[in-house]
Amino acid sequence: MAVQESNLRCTVCDREAEHEVVYAGRFVTQIVCTHCGAVTRLDVSEDYLPDLRDRVATKPRRLASVFRDHPLSSTTSLPGRMLSKPLRMAEEVLTVHRNRRRGER
Ligand SMILES: [Zn+2]
């Protein structure tokens, strides 16, 4: 799960402030105002789950291209990547699940 800092105007405190933008894959699923702590949750489950399926399905190919493009660096960094990847994906899925709108469907 990737977190990026971004300067945005908060809709709650109406200030321009640093916001933590949380990504699940390529989708923004949560935005946190660091000034007032307001959390904006975005329901990306309908887009995220098919995207996750694609990412898992194309993973062997993507790993192969990492080896092809960076044969030396990938051998040294691969064990860490292989260990952290499932954990990061699980975090993403949990965050997306938490941010789903309830009772609307
Ligand atoms: Zn705010």
Mean pLDDT: 83
**Could you list the spans in which at least 5 consecutive residues all have pLDDT below 50?**
none
How far apart the termini lie comes to: 26 Å
Structural class determined from secondary elements: alpha+beta
Bound molecules: zinc ion
**Pattern of helices and strands:** EEEEHHH
Which word captures the global form?
elongated
Features:
4 strands; alpha+beta; single chain; binds zinc ion; 105 residues; 26% strand; 50% helix; elongated; 3 helices; four-stranded antiparallel sheet
How would you sum up this structure in a few lines?
50% of the residues lie in helices and 26% in strands. The chain contains 3 helices and 4 strands.
Describe the protein's topology.
Blueprint (H helix, E strand, L loop, with lengths): L1 E8 L6 E9 L2 E7 L5 E3 L3 H13 L1 H11 L1 H28 L7
Helix pairs in contact: 2-3
Question: Can you walk through the features of this model?
Answer:
50% of the residues lie in helices and 26% in strands. With 105 residues, it is an alpha+beta fold. It has one domain (2-104). It has a 4-stranded antiparallel β-sheet. Strand 2 (16-24) and strand 3 (27-33) form a beta hairpin. The chain is elongated, with a radius of gyration of 17 Å.
